[in-house]
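Hey L., structure's done. Input below.
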Amino acid sequence: MSPPTLLTPDPPPALESARGYSAEFGEALANHAAMVLWAQRRLGGGEADAARFLGAYLAANPLRTLPAPDAAIDPGHWTARLGDRQAEAAYRAFFRAELARLGSAETLQDLYLPRLLPGIAASALHALMRLAYARDSGTAAEIAESLGYWAATYLPLGEGIGAEPITDQPAAVLLRVAADPALRGLEFDDGLLWHAMRRTAAMPSFAPVYNWLDVGRDTMRRMASDTLMVLAATTFPRSSDNAEFCALHAVTGTHWLRLVLPALQPADKSRAIRFFWQAIASIYPKMGCPMPLTPEQVGRLRRLPAPDWPLIAAAAVASDDEHDISLVYSARAEEALWGDALYRVVAARRLGLLPATDAG
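Output:
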């Protein structure tokens, strides 16, 4: 995929309307509207579909309009309020002003994104999602909004212990987490993903996880495959709605990361990949630490009679479930790059287009 031009195209009306809301609502739940409306459009949805989805989303969720900034962000000390959700409006105004000053979304990202990488888990990776889709749409204004969202919900999970990497296999990192009784046995008191991430990261034995993965030229391909296998393991049969929900974000998150990596220099690309995989490892215990499927099981799943993408995409466009749309868009994009038919199978299963089955 060629990099976006970031020339601020005219957004569709529903997407423009969605930008006026805070990035979170309720008990710090991610507002998916701006991102999912773009994904829906990419899947073939029109303005009528967008208006229907946004109307349903507003009816179902207590979104709030973005308030006036409580104070201006000091450009010389702009990191002072990282992770302060009360500063969302201030940070979004700050990055809008910086975009106007710099005159370039690319320069804005060059200047600020490397410092934000340790908090990539922001809003359970949904700030990454917003930046990814801002880049995908080529909308400079959305890039500024997404950086403000990221700064206000910044969630650092630790920067490691300075140790050498121990594996070039992303799945091996997850299995090491699963092998640690203190991590595998964690219990979580609510459904918020970012709370689970923070809870896991607070465990002393989680500290070296950032260092474990040896990032190389093939890491993104392996990461895409491993997240897909985790999602399949929670979907066939469905181990629990919670496990599948967490695993879904690992697959979509890998797509989001891939869209953002071109904005970074090589050294920062490696940092971004490590921080992202650390975030996935931090929710692995909440998934129940699903074990990988066998090659035979995966082969059987790939042969299931999933419909073609146009039918799956049409079903997603018609859905009012934000995660239906998000998964289908990411799965279709990832299959187009990596060529694994299992993406189509898990997407079809999510949309109810495959009968109940298991990996046997």
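The chain is about 60% helix and 0% strand. The two ends are 36 Å apart (CA to CA).

-- N.
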